[in-house]
Design a protein that fits this description.
By secondary structure, the chain is of the alpha/beta class. It has two domains: about 1-255, TIM Barrel, CATH 3.20.20; about 280-380, Lyase, Ornithine Decarboxylase, Chain A, domain 1, CATH 2.40.37. The chain is about 30% helix and about 20% strand. It has helices spanning about 1-5, 20-30, 45-60, 80-85, 100-110, 140-150, 170-185, 205-215, 220-235, 250-255, 305, 380, and strands at about 10-15, 40, 65-70, 95, 120, 155-160, 200-205, 240-245, 280-290, 295-300, 320, 340-345, 350-355, 370-375, 385-390, 400-405. Strand 1 (about 10-15), helix 2 (about 20-30) and strand 2 form a beta-alpha-beta unit. Helix 3 runs parallel beside helix 4 and helix 7 (about 170-185) packs across helix 8 (about 205-215). It comes from Pleomassaria siparia CBS 279.74. Catalyzes the conversion of D-serine to pyruvate and ammonia. May play a role in D-serine detoxification. Its cofactor is pyridoxal 5'-phosphate; Zn(2+). This is D-serine dehydratase.
Length: about 400
């Protein structure tokens, strides 16, 4: 991801809400000794508070760093944000705004002489979760108010193209990235001429940010359009990509087909396949039901472990990988023969594995078997866990080499 950003001379803002660990946060920005900025997005205050020591370390060595609290600001969050901002350089802490009343309340709550907090305006580019449309009649007054009250503390426009997860091809992902840039470029027209700063247009979600990798070598006509648009925007504004789940990957990401799923590594990037998923859930078989019309087994992981977010490419809540008790056996492939064990149903504490495909190809499970399951959505699947057990695929892939503690709470 950092290589792609370097190639296109754009910034990168690492979202940490998927993994919630210091170790991966540092890796996302190039490590502790990198010279590049260490810019982050968080979805909870506890993530920002756990990043504080690393931020202080960066700033003490002259390394630029910042945190964007990446949800429209709850008023109750202001005291904690001010405390964080008081420890760091001005505008190291930034907020999202998509509503004039919310911005007015935020600005009114700031005490005299309070630390400087930057402001981004969240633009709705079609996901309809949070944000304001640049075509809204409420948009120009919001921009005007932010410029008047924040001055150069107005940092730019932010978009999350979350509906890119519905894409099914490289072109779909490229379309999303280009559309985001166009909408944010249009949004800049509402900024009054009196504004003296340089705006940042920050765009992305893992599928669209991943699509930028394709722009390095793809022959698609979308590549030329992207490069031309980017060059035009960069004459006056900074562009920044942001993404979060890509270090873990999951079945939802694979299902977007934002990059090729097979073949040799292209431009140094591995294929977008299940084998590249970094997170697996270790589960245990607690009962078996071979006598049912479709063979099934009970595992010690339900919705509290795996989440309840579906994946568009298959009818399940997780896929049993080819590790441990399923080593060497058929692994379910939604683009292949669809034969293997999947998590077919879930309740709160338990999941039901179901065998998909011909019964004669089934490898029988036994009580006590340990299995690895790829989850649909890594962000949700990790939420109930206190730590990751780390293995190194460049070594034997089985030995636990480290334990990374996850940040808990809000």
């Amino acid at each position: 991801m950092l290589h792609v950003c370097d190639e296109f001379a754009v910034g990168f803002r690492a979202h940490v809400k998927s993994h919630k660990t210091l170790e991966l946060s540092k890796m996302q920005v190039g490590g502790t000794s990198a010279s590049r900025p260490a810019n982050f997005v968080t979805s909870t205050l506890i993530e920002a508070e756990n990043l504080l020591p690393f931020m202080l370390e960066c700033q003490s060595s002259g390394r630029a760093s910042s945190i964007l609290y990446g949800v429209p600001i709850p008023q109750s969050a202001i005291p904690r944000l001010l405390h964080l901002a008081s420890k760091l350089a001005p505008y190291s802490i930034n907020i999202l705004i998509d509503n004039l009343a919310a911005f007015t309340a935020f600005h009114s709550a700031l005490p005299e002489g309070s630390p400087k907090i930057g402001v981004y305006i969240k633009i709705d580019t079609g996901y309809h979760r949070a944000g304001i449309k640049a075509t809204s009649p409420n948009f120009p007054p919001l921009v005007q108010a932010v410029v008047e009250e924040s001055g150069t503390g107005f940092k730019g426009f932010y978009s999350h193209f979350g509906h890119s997860y519905a894409g099914s091809s490289e072109d779909d992902a490229a379309d999303g990235l280009i559309e985001e840039l166009k909408v944010l470029q249009e949004a800049t027209k509402a900024v009054p001429g009196s504004f003296q700063g340089q705006l940042v247009l920050t765009v992305g979600a893992t599928p669209t940010a991943t699509a930028a990798q394709n722009m390095l070598s793809s022959n698609s006509p979308r590549v030329g359009e992207f490069k031309e648009l980017l060059a035009r925007i960069q004459k006056t504004h900074k562009v920044e990509l942001h993404a979060g789940v890509y270090p873990l990957l999951d079945l939802q990401q694979v299902a977007t087909h934002a990059r090729p799923a097979t073949g040799e590594a292209r431009d140094g990037f591995q294929p977008l396949s299940k084998e590249s998923i970094g997170i697996k859930m270790l589960v245990e078989v607690t009962s078996v039901y071979d006598e049912r019309d479709k063979p099934e087994a009970l595992i010690s992981a339900g919705s509290l472990a795996l989440g309840r977010e579906p994946c568009k490419s298959y009818p399940g809540w997780g896929v049993v990988s080819g590790d441990l008790g399923n080593k060497g056996q058929s692994v379910y492939d939604d683009r292949g023969d669809r034969t293997g064990w999947i998590v077919g149903r879930i309740s709160q504490e338990h999941g039901i594995l179901s065998w998909e495909g011909p019964r004669e190809k089934m490898k029988a499970l036994t009580i006590g078997d340990k299995l690895m399951v790829w989850p649909n959505h890594a962000c949700v699947a990790g939420a109930g866990m206190g730590w990751y057990l780390i293995i190194d695929s460049e070594q034997d892939g089985d030995t636990i080499v480290d334990v990374w503690v996850r940040w808990r709470g809000w």
